[in-house]
Amino acid sequence: MTTETAPETQEKIHIPVPALTGYHTSDPHETLSDSEQELYNQVLAPFTKEDYVIPEMPEEEKGGLTEDERFWLSRHCLLRYLRASKWDAQVAIQKIEATLRWRRENRMDDPSYASSIEPEAVTGKHVMFGFDIHGRPAFYAFPSRQNTEDVKQHLRFTFWIIERGIDMMAPGVETFDALINFAERAAKPNYGEAMSIISILHAHYPERLGICSIINVPFFINAFLKLVLPFVDPVTRAKVKFNQSVLQDGVFTEDMLMKEWEGNRHFEYEHHKYWPALIEMCENNSKRWKAKWRALGGKIGISEWDYKHVDEDEKLGNGDLVVSGISAQLASSTFEDNEKQTEVAVVPVVPETLAS
After folding, report:
1. Are residues 135 and 23 in contact, defined by beta-carbon separation less than 8 angstroms?
2. Residues 75-90: b if buried by 16+ CB within 10 A, e if exposed
3. What is the DSSP track for 313-356?
4. Which helix (H) or strand (E) holds 104?
5. CRAL-TRIO domain: from which residue to which, for each copy (predicted)?
6. What residues pair up with 181 in beta bridges, in sequence order?
7. How far apart are CA 150 and CA 148, in angstroms?
8. Are 184 and 142 in contact (CB under 8 A)?
9. How many domains does the chain have?
């Protein structure tokens, strides 16, 4: 991959790009075959029983499904697990129940979670910024910015950020891209931590990875990855690319890429600006989607397309950009840095418990 970067056309940016819409005009998974629909119904059935409880939970964690858990159990969620299970309904049910246990044990729906892992975020080692041409949010990782030593906290933060990427997915988008940059003398990788990330992604985030692009790979990292990749399933392994240009490959446009990846966005992480903007954006998306989900009946199995789809009166301008009610600073389609404003070009279109 070339190290040259595109000319910067913007001032420094410190906050996330607002979510876009227009990538899909209809639900990509709206239509199922008769046999697929039957298998889907089999997966849906146990979770909709009034007396359903997550099996194998500790006594203090037992109880019926919470509203957040019912919301998570969307039609598209069940289909992701079915596809990942090669359309074996019983396997899909078991995997979903394992993820429900993991999410409850690790407080994935707890609104106070952000404050507990915030110290991990202050260096900008993981950020969500921009979208590829398919609308997939980009998860950037900079291992050289590692600032703590607690592996459990590293894992908590990694998946908290991925959850925020899910909060930024437009209607019809179900996957994210991982862009990992090993420049600037990245610390020696932790084999156990890497294996835990792979295990959690495989078990609890099936059908979520779009591509994984890794650049500036030094020799010792390359040797490390040769140890790790054999444990990755073949489908996921095929999505991992080394030292390739996501710009030249046509996956991203310049205006949606950081300059380190040949884009023209000069993103600079400033925690006091990025962190509250990310949380506000994601919370407002989540609140809007849940309100619509409740209006649709608040049931398990509601389509993500149906509760994410934007009505005409929710659109801004010509409908190409939707920012879901976030603050005026973000909704203006500009990024503000103190007294400067810069135009933003947008394109329409399982391991141990993490909790201590």
Report:
1. yes
2. bbbbbbbbebbeeebe
3. GG-BTTTTB--TT--HHHHTTEEEETTEEEE--------S-S--
4. helix 89-105
5. 110-269
6. 215
7. 6
8. yes
9. 1
Cα–Cα dist 299/291, whole Å: 12
Q: How many residues in the chain?
A: 356
SS3 state of residue 310: coil
The CATH number for 308's domain is 3.40.525.10
| Tens-binned pLDDT, residue by residue, of the chain (356 aa) | 444 444 545 689 999 998 777 788 889 888 999 999 999 999 999 999 999 999 999 887 888 999 999 999 999 999 999 999 999 999 999 999 999 999 999 999 998 889 999 999 999 999 999 999 999 999 999 999 999 999 999 999 999 999 999 999 999 999 999 999 988 766 677 788 888 999 999 999 999 999 999 999 888 778 888 888 888 888 888 999 988 999 999 999 999 999 999 999 999 999 999 999 999 999 999 999 999 999 999 999 999 999 998 754 455 433 344 433 333 333 333 333 433 333 333 333 344 455 44
- What's the domain range around 131? 1-356
Q: Round to whole Å and give the CA distance between 112 and 289.
A: 20
Q: From CA 182, how far away is CA 194, in angstroms rounded?
A: 14
**Cβ-proximal residues to 157 (8 Å cutoff; 6+ apart), any chain:** 117, 120, 121, 126
Q: Are 65 and 52 contacting, i.e. CB atoms less than 8 angstroms apart? A: yes
Global pTM reads 0.85
Closest CA to 304 of 73, 110, 99, 81: 73
Residues 6 or more apart in contact with residue 4 via CB below 8 angstroms: 262
Q: Quick one: tokens of 205?
A: 């985030």
What lies within 8 Å, CB to CB, of 196 at 6+ separation is: 151, 155, 351, 352
